Amino acid sequence: MENNQILTDLKGKTAIVTGGTKGIGRAIANELAQAGATVIVSARNQPEGDNSHHFIAADLTNPADVAELEQEIKQKFGGVDILINNVGGLTTPPGGFSALTDEHWESELQLNLLAATRLDRIFLPGMIAKKSGVVIHISSVAAKQPLWNLNMAYAVSKAALNSYSKSLATELASKGVRVLTVAPGATKTPPMEKFVSDYAQSSNITVEEAFKQLLAQTGGIPMGRMAEPEEVASLVHYLVSPAAKYLTGTTYAIDGGSLPVV
After folding, report:
1. Please, one GO biological process term (predicted)?
2. Cα pseudo-dihedral 16, 20, 23, 27, rounded to 10
3. What's the chain's average pLDDT?
């Protein structure tokens, strides 16, 4: 019987992690590298401090940047075995439907849905040709539990990503390529900390009170804390490894039990 270390070993694999310089993306990049993978990270800005991964600056909402990223990766690496579509975020204002313009909706869809579809179109043909590869879309529990006053457009864009990911998984299952979705809940990242801080400032309350109010709107977290980015990365590592070779087409929530659904 193969041991767990062999089943989760990624030696000889090349992975790209979008939005891979901070938060969940950085944790995933580090985890995959520790498992033996050659890791490429992309982001709009150069990472701060030491970075042992190959970095490519790219705004994935800009097709021209995506084309340059494609050219560099194919020249230097030939292609990738693992694609982590992690780039995304909440960029629109709170306040419900009346606060959201066409530009807000377009921006959220570009960042949280279309950036992933662009990368998939680039790298899937190579995976299909090898009959091997894994694509992970990083979504959010907000896709199933939207908060109208805080994240309407973001939640809708992530729900669209979930649906796209499921459809893509069905299309590619017989071609040797697995597609999975990971949906984190509240996770201790710089964007989350800024979101809570901004909410506290706009509501004229303390950060601690703001966090409690936000948790109350979602029904709370049974585990009583936010996830660490490394915990999300651990799940992603398992899903891209040979240990998960029969898994495809599923969305995995990692939320400390917060989603109030079966």
Report:
1. monocarboxylic acid metabolic process
2. 40
3. 93
> Which domains does the chain show, CATH number per domain?
4-185+228-254 (3.40.50.720)
Per the listing, tokens 């701060």 go with 48
Counting every residue written for the chain, the total comes to 262
Contacts of 167 (CB under 8 A, 6+ apart): none
pLDDT tens for residues 137-146?
999 999 999 9
Which token pair is 1? 């019987």
| pTM summary value | 0.92
**H helices present in the chain, as ranges:** 4-7, 23-34, 63-76, 102-109, 115-130, 152-172, 190-203, 207-217, 229-240
Residue 16's SS3 state is strand
Q: Which residues contact 185 (CB under 8 A, 6 or more apart)?
A: 140, 141, 218, 221, 226, 227, 253, 254, 255, 256, 258, 259
Which residues are marked as active site?
A: 154
- Using alpha carbons, select from 56, 52, 13, 34 the residue that is nearest to residue 233: 34
> Residues 6 or more apart from 138 whose CB is under 8 A from it?
24, 25, 84, 85, 86, 88, 181, 182, 183, 184, 236
Token pair 């944790």 in the structure block, residue: 27
Distance CA 95, CA 194 (A): 18
